[in-house]
Structure of LacI family DNA-binding transcriptional regulator:
Amino acid sequence: MTTIKDIAVLSNVSASTVSRVLNNDKTLAVTEETRKKILNVARELNYKSVRARKSVEKKEVYKIGIFLCQSLEEELSDPYFLSIRQGVENECRERGLSSTELFRLYNFGDVSLDPELDGLVVIGKVSTKVINRFCQEIKNVVYIDYSPDEQKYDSVVIDFDKATTVSLEHLLKLGYEKIGYIGGTVAEHMGNKKIEFEDERKIVFKRVMEQRGLFRDDFVFVGDFTMSEGYRLMKDAINKKEVPEAFFVGSDPMAVGALRALQEMNIRVPEEVALVSFDDVEMAQFASCPLTTVRVHTEEMGRTGVKLLLDRMNGREIPLKITLPTEFIIRSSCGAKLNVFQDN
C-alpha cells in the first residue's frame, strides 16, 4: 500500500508537504509545479487517502423491497407464505440491510415502488408483466416459490414433483390403494386478474396413481388452499358412496379442516382414514391427530432469496435457480410408526 513517505521520496519533498497538498491545504506556500508533481506521483502510485479507503471499506447499506401476491388475510390463513416473508426479513435484519419495504399486489394501485430500491424479492406467482413495469428502475429481482423466467430472474423453489411422489409412495407402501386427493388451484397474478391452473401436486398425484392403475377421478376434490375449504371438501368426500382409505392433502391448513370433518362424522384417523399433508407449518404437529407431512423449509427459502439478491447486486450476471430439499415427516395421521425420511 502506497504511503505519503513513498510519494515524498519520489517527489523530492517532505512528507508534511505531500500531506498538505493531498489534503488541499490552501495555506501551503508551494509552487504550482511542485503541487502538480506530487499529485501526478500520487496518481501513478494509486494512492488513496485514509478517508477514501474507509469510504470503500464501509459496508454499503442496501434497500430491499418485498412484493407479495397474497393479501394480509390470505397470508395469515396460510402460514406457508408468512414464514417465507419472515425469512426474508430476518436475513435482511441480520445482515444490517435497510428496513424492507412491503408491497402487496392487491393494493398496489394506490402506491408506487421506491425507485431507490436496490433489489426486490417477489414471493409467490406474480406475473413477469407486472414486475417488468419496474425493471428499468429496479435491476435486481429474485422470485421465491416461483420461477417464471430462468434466463432473467434468480429464483428459489422446491421440487413439488419429488415431494409429492415420496408422499404417495409412502402411502402405497403402507398398503393403501384407494387414495384420494384434496387440494387447491394455483394462480399467476396479473394485477387485478388471475390466471388459474392445476397445482403441480394434483398433476403428480394423477400421474403416480395412473401408473399404478389406481387413479379415480371421483376421489379428487379441489377448492381453495384454506382450512375451511379442507373441511368442506372432506365433507363432500364423506358424502360420496365410497370414501377413500387415505388422502393426500395439498396443505396443512386444509388437512386440519379435513380432520375436523372426519372427527365430526366419528371417522377415526388413521384407523379408518389416513392423511398425508404438505408444508409442516407449526399447526401440523399440534393437530388433534399430528400430521404426517412434507416439511418445506420456508424460512430458509426467504433467507436464500436475500443471499441471491445480494450476490447479484455485488456483480453476478448469470441468473441462478436454487431448489431447496424437503423432508418427509412421519407422524400419527398416516398410520405408520416410523421415523423421518430425508428427501435428498
Remarks:
- The first strand starts at residue 63 and ends at 68.
